[in-house]
Amino acid sequence: MRYYTLRHKDVAHVAASKDGHRAYILRAYMTMNTLLMKGHDGSIPGLSEAVDLDSPDVQILSPIPHPRQDMICLGINYADHAKEAESFDKEAFSKERPDPIFFSKRVSFSQGTGDIIPMHEDICDSLDYETELGVVIGRQAKDVKASDALDYIFGYTIVNDVSARNLQTKHKQWYFGKSLDGFTPMGPCIVSKDEFDGIPELDIKTFVNGELRQSSNTANLITGIPEIIEILSAGMTLEPGTVIATGTPSGVAMGMDPPAFLQDGDEVVCEIEGIGRLVNICKKSSAG
User: Fold this and answer.
1) 32, 60, 88: which is the final residue of a domain?
2) Residue 116 gets which letter from DSSP?
3) Residue 19 belongs to domain spanning
4) Integer Rg of the chain from CA
5) pLDDT score at 288
6) Does residue 243 contact residue 67 with C-beta atoms inside 8 Å?
7) What pLDDT is recorded for position 120?
8) Tens digits of per-residue pLDDT, 54-102?
9) Shared domain check, 85 and 149
10) Each residue of 173-227: pLDDT tens digit?
């Protein structure tokens, strides 16, 4: 099942779709957070209102426009990205990594596909993209073993971990440079875990103005999803609705020679096999 938050007739709804084209409004849930806390068995109630997702009357929002907590992120979780990050700023990114790097990303609001990415050009001169597989937790998870991790996953989505590289390196930590307003596009939906065979191994790509920039597979994660959940849940309780962004592969703007940071009007397409495409346009605030 594919779960959406969409706006239809100027009202936001939670909806479910079996094919990604026709969706059914789930009126029992006010928000996606409500659905994640209560759970959903994948059924469509009788007499549910159906909408076409490609209709001009439907706007697809972020599946979780207002996450209950900050997003948990992994840094440098693909080996090829580790190399390119170090080449951009050795002091900021060159570290021994015997254990995964975790950080949080403040996200009071997440925009969806078709929305803009604000450039914050007054403080950011090096805007970058990072396509990541987002893991959405569906059950309260504490002291979970890797072998049982799948039982606690609701589904998967796409996250663009937008980053202001100058702020990320200037402040010697990543929180501020990754937490500016509008820096967490997500979507277009959450695909339930039963749509995949076990822990998914999915092609992951980024296109900027049609140019392929990132291309890898989630099988290349250094720390895999089950291990991530085991490590985190050993010391903190992961509540339903928690989103874990699992890291990005090589091909980000700062890794290019010379760096090719995002510019006003650039289209960024984050694509993950089996989930879809998250499309956003960069826009300067001065552009109105």
Assistant:
1) 60
2) E
3) 2-60
4) 18
5) 43
6) yes
7) 98
8) 999 999 999 999 999 999 999 999 987 566 665 555 565 555 667 999 9
9) yes
10) 899 999 999 999 999 999 999 999 999 999 999 999 999 999 999 999 999 999 9
What's at 255, amino acid-wise?
G
- List of residues 6+ apart from 131 with CB closer than 8 A: 158, 159, 160, 204, 205, 206, 214, 248, 249, 270, 271, 272, 278
Residues near 35 by Cβ (< 8 Å), separated by ≥ 6? 3, 14, 26, 29
Please report the DSSP string for 173-233 in residue order: SSTGGG-STT---EEEEEEEGGGSSSS---EEEEEETTEEEEEEEGGG-SS-HHHHHHHHH
Please, which pLDDT band fits residue 285 given cuts at 50, 70 and 90? confident
Kindly report whether the global pTM for this prediction surpasses the value 0.85.
yes
Ramachandran angles phi, psi of 125, nearest 5°: -115, 10
Structure tokens given for 57: 């009357």
Q: Encoding tokens for residue 154? A: 């609701």
Closest CA to 115 of 61, 45, 178: 61
Exposure pattern of 214-239 as b/e (b: 16+ CB <10 Å)?
A: bebbbebbbbbbbebbbbbbeeeebb
Q: Reply yes or no on whether the pLDDT at 233 is more than 80.
A: yes
Question: Considering only CA atoms, which of 180, 206, 179, 191 is closest in space to residue 271?
Answer: 206
Q: Quick one: 99 and 202 in the same domain?
A: yes
Largest CA distance in the chain: 59
Task: Map tokens 């989103």 to a residue.
Answer: 243
Is 195 inside a domain boundary? Answer: yes
